[in-house]
Amino acid sequence: MAHGRMFSSMILGLVCCGVTSVGLADGRTYFVRQSGSDLSNGLTPDSALRSIQRAVALATGSGNSVIVGPGVYYEQVYVGSGVGSMAGNGTAEAPNVIIADLTGAQTGDPAAQVVIEGDGVRDCGMRITQRDHWSVSGLTFRGQGQRAIFIDRAAGIDVESCTIYAPTIAGIEATNCSELLISGNTFTRDPESGSCIVVSAEAHAGRPRGEDEHERGEERREDSHGKDDRRHESRDDDHGRDRAKGHFRPSRRIPGETVVIESNRFPMLGELYLASNFGREEHGRRNRVHERVYGIDVAAQGDGATVQIFNNVGSDCYNGIRLRLEGDRASGVIAGNSLAGCWIGIHVSERGGRVLLSDNIVAHSRFAIAAMGHGSKMTISGLLTFDVGGATVLGDGPKSIEGHRQNVDPKWVAPSAGNFALEADSPAIDSGLGAAGLATDIRGLARPYDGNGNRDAKSDLGAYEYHPDEDGTRRLRLVEWREIEARPN
Predict the structure, then answer these.
(1) At residue 225, does pLDDT exceed 80?
(2) Which of 48, 121, 132, 280 could form a disulfide with 31 if both were Cys (CB 3.0 to 4.6 A apart)?
(3) 296 phi/psi in degrees, rounded to 5
């Protein structure tokens, strides 16, 4: 998963600094513009393609970049199936990437969003099937009927910094995947929206590597007998580096990293904030497809499967975060999240694995935590709860919670506007225990930081770390889900 972190900085430089190509492997850079033509070669802004799909189809090897200019694209993009079946696999060192040129610096177009528009007639915005090491960054998905992004039988997929108008089933759904990074995305929701992130993952899962159906069959048979070494090789070299932009540094190397979900936003806004009734009624407000709407729902299994869910903010879900974990030496970390208005803030069920819940905030919910399985293998270190109507821990959780601030208002700045930053007098400041070792918060600011000025830096509870220079003298306001700093008059 280290490639996603390294690639984030490369993407940022590409979009913001005017770099015109990505020097990875022997791949090419393809440009897509609304003024382009699919009869062009797409190799320069002047010879840009018209559709994202055409550019993806030309990316037959690894290390290719698809730079999409500002505008609205009415299409459903296939990677690895249908008209996108010619798209190739990337590699960990040279992934294939689809990048939104929001500033227009690469394409020469006026700055604007890059939108994949479903227009109410397309079920999905992008499908990635049996292709490994693809990255999607900065796109807006709007108007899809069922899912914005669907990923199946793939490894090494990154979805970063996208804006997703959540459809009726899921904003992002991934099945039979591993090495998955979902980072920095914003989900716009209403009562008709389904779940935001739904993942079914397996350690070492992904696309069969056979060249034909015979080889694929052999791999499946080998895997059924536990002999497929290719799908069970260790990726130790990845684990010596920082994960998720340096946010989580494990205490030991863990083979088979599976899923990282970090710094995503999925609260309801305005009058819809806390209006779902999930905090009072078991089913709460229902959308027209599913009774139970999840913010983040991850099921992971396999020897060494790992799940890391941290620095996310969300509200008004049946479960804000649900983790189902199964497998020898499987592990999960749920840390630094801020959740409100849920039936259950964090729901964990596990068999054979271990789970750490660290420095989370759960407010205005029926239950803070539900634990099903071997509670003795669950650790709760650092927790703030407020306006929780039922038990703090429901089920087979540990009998004690270390560092619990109970029934204390976290004093978020403006949660109904999606801003879960901490006020200067928030009791969450310097109250965390830091067991997960998070190095930054949802904004990328350093953790721990001496927020209360007592010269003893400790992590804060929740997704935000209070920095007086950033938060004390300047207010944060939200404009179309993108935080900007506004200096006081």
Answers:
(1) no
(2) 48
(3) -130, 125
d(CA 4, CA 33): 26
CA dist., res. 11 & res. 99, Å (int): 7
Q: Is the peptide bond before 448 cis (omega within 30 degrees of 0)?
A: yes
Residue listed under structure tokens 């069922």: 146
Say if CB 66 and CB 84 are below 8 A apart: no
In 316-431, at which residue ranges do the beta strands (DSSP E only) sit?
Answer: 319-326, 331-335, 338-340, 344-351, 354-365, 367-373, 378-388, 393-395, 402-406, 412-414, 419-422
**For 19-28, how does the pLDDT look when each residue is reduced to its tens digit (9 = 90+)?**
333 333 468 9
Evaluate whether 3 touches 95 at the Cβ level (below 8 Å).
yes
Residue 427 CA, chain-centre distance (Å), reads: 27
Residues 6+ apart with CB under 8 A from 162: 136, 137, 138, 139, 140, 141, 149, 185, 186
Closest CA to 305 of 233, 356, 256, 374: 256
The CA distance from 466 to 477, in Å, is 15
Residue with the bigger pLDDT between 407 and 5: it is 407
Q: What is the pLDDT of residue 287?
A: 59
Per-residue model confidence as pLDDT tens digits over 316-359: 999 999 999 887 788 999 999 999 999 999 999 877 778 999 99
The CA distance from 447 to 431, in Å, is 12
Q: What angle do CA 284, 287, 288 make, to 5 degrees?
A: 135
Find residue 140's DSSP bridge partners.
115, 163
CB burial string 427-438: b at 16+ within 10 A, e below:
bbbbbbbbbbeb
From 90-104, 143-157, 279-293, the region with the lowest mean pLDDT? 279-293
CA distance 406 to 388: 9
What type of residue is 222? Answer: E
